Q: What sequence folds into this?
């Protein structure tokens, strides 16, 4: 069947057709549509496939690992920085190995369209010593999923599929299979002790992982995903091109044959024999890859004894941002680059909070007190409320990674900085803020934690928040004294009351929590109804 699919949808459909039993994810651009597609699939709706948002990426990956342990095919999906959160589970699951096929899909964001950095997940794959697959187009993304699950079961290892924004978020015709592979039956591993990573077992498992590397390299050589493309005879240059960058290369040769021998990389570890042949036959080697100079660092001459390898490290291609066909044309020294620039379809405009958003009232209240405190007292986090950093608010001073606001406020308070305030969203709080608050409670730190509770994971499109209706009880359970857990409603009419509460809690020399509760105005009717049902707390205003 032919379908027009986003790269993310092709990945999702490929997984469904490959016998997927469960997907576990935490939302994050550019990966979110993969899980949303499966959640909305008939298979998930009728309960054949478990499709759920987890509290964070580590939890998501571990849930997928649990499903794999009992023999089923499972997938975990996240954005690149999410893998920092899941890294402990991911790296250790390469040591234990998996049972049912386990595929980790990571979407990288070169150019940082919607991210704090443009880190390249391939390094994590290499670090964990597991296979990495990198599709060049939507069809490959679809086809690769079946292969990824097969390879995971054949090698007994998790397999990473790496996408990038441009692939995840562009559409193309994809031919899908008419028949779905049935799901695996429930069956636990015969050698289940390998999942017990105490040193006596873990050492053996690590040795096995090392042994498997030969087989993985052989697989990269023969699977058909890596290809040696013969050029028409120009031996001045050979090319190594990976993932989506293959399209940028071929756009320059749409109307003529490729003159250079080219190794197209879609699978790691790198295919040594193919690359050796390329190196032996050609004078220079240009490496074209989206992301960090990952292949280039491996193949390049670190000590500079020769200048055979060129690419991002040698300045032939840009180090930052996404590649494009023009950048590749320049690296190839093509005299007549294609006669058009990369079009700007959407004129860039600064992001802003939606009219009527509760975060606006919250920041107006915080901002009214900043003249008293001075700058650099408000540590914040990642979500729609990050927009408190721009005008007209200019109310927050740090945004580093999900969950950093509370520990940073505590660290500053430890150093004697007063006041020390953390502003964190409801989903970010349950993702990775709770442990920071527990620490602050244990040390009786004088910090004020403002939870911007809009009952949704709004920034990534309004997914349900695992925090819904639970924040008060969580804060209480973590040990915050009840008289210092306040609930306020960020509406203009409560401005004075909210500022009064804020001032009082900031004066309190211990940890306090103020829950600013008002649902995101863009939420679906269904989610608004859920919020009405679960947000039952009375605001902390004097009667
Ligand atoms: C580790 C990590 N995972 C995912 C993301 C993507 N992301 C950014 S903000 C956010 C959630 C924000 O939700 P919430 O804290 O409730 O704030 P809101 O956007 O609703 O105001 C997510 C998932 C990220 N930046 N980092
Ligand atoms: S999506 Fe919701 S939380 Fe985000 S800015 Fe708009 S109203 Fe505010």
A:
């Amino acid at each position: 069947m032919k379908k027009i699919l986003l790269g993310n949808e092709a990945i999702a459909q490929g997984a469904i057709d490959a016998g997927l039993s469960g997907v576990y994810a935490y939302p994050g651009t550019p990966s979110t549509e993969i899980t949303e597609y499966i959640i909305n699939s008939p298979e998930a709706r009728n309960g054949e496939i478990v499709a759920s948002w987890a509290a964070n990426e580590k939890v998501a990956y571990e849930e997928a690992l649990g499903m794999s342990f009992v023999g089923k095919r499972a997938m975990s999906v996240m954005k690149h920085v999410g893998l920092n959160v899941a890294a402990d589970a991911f790296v250790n699951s390469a040591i234990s190995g998996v049972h049912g096929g386990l595929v980790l899909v990571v979407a990288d964001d070169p150019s940082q369209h919607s991210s704090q950095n443009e880190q390249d997940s391939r390094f994590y794959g290499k670090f964990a010593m597991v296979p990495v697959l990198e599709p060049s187009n939507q069809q490959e993304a679809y086809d690769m999923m079946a292969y990824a699950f097969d390879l995971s079961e054949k090698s007994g290892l998790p397999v990473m599929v790496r996408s990038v924004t441009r692939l995840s978020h562009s559409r193309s015709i994809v031919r899908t299979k008419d028949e779905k592979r049935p799901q695996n039956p429930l069956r636990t591993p015969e050698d289940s002790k390998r999942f017990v990573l105490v040193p006596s077992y873990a050492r053996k498992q690590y040795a096995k992982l090392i042994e498997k590397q030969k087989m993985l390299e052989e697989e990269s050589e023969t699977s058909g995903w890596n290809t040696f493309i013969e050029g028409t005879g120009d031996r001045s240059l050979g090319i190594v091109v990976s993932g989506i960058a293959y399209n940028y290369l071929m756009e320059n040769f749409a109307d003529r044959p490729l003159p250079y021998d080219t190794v197209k990389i879609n699978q790691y570890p790198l295919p040594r024999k193919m690359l050796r042949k390329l190196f032996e036959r050609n004078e220079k080697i240009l490496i074209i890859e989206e992301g960090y100079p990952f292949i280039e660092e491996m193949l390049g001459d670190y000590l500079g004894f020769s200048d055979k390898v060129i690419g991002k490290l040698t300045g032939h291609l840009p180090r930052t941002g996404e590649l494009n066909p023009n950048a590749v044309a320049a690296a190839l020294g093509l005299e007549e680059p294609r006669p058009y620039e990369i079009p700007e379809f959407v004129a860039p405009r600064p992001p802003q909070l939606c009219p009527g958003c509760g975060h606006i009232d919250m920041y107006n209240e915080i901002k009214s007190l900043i003249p008293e405190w001075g700058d650099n007292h408000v540590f914040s986090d990642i979500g729609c409320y990050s927009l408190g950093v721009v005008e007209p608010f200019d109310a927050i001073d740090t945004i580093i990674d999900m969950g950093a606001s509370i520990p940073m406020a505590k660290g500053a308070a430890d150093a004697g900085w007063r006041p020390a305030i953390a502003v964190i969203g409801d989903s970010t709080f349950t993702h990775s803020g709770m442990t920071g608050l527990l620490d602050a409670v244990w040390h009786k730190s004088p910090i004020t934690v403002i939870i911007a509770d809009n009952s949704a994971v709004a920034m990534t499109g309004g997914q349900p928040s695992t925090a819904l209706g639970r924040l008060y009880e969580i804060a209480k359970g973590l040990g915050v004294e009840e008289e210092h857990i306040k609930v306020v409603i960020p509406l203009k009419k409560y401005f004075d009351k909210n500022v009064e509460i804020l001032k009082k809690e900031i004066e309190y020399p211990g940890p306090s929590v103020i829950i600013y509760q008002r649902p995101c105005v863009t939420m679906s009717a269904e989610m608004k109804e859920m919020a009405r049902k679960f947000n039952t707390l009375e605001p902390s205003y004097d009667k």
About this structure: The domain at 227-331 is CATH 3.40.50.920 (Rossmann fold). Residues 26-28, 79, 81-82, 85, 382-385, 402, 425-428, 452, 454, 456-460, 465 surround thiamine diphosphate (ligand 1) (CB under 6 Å).
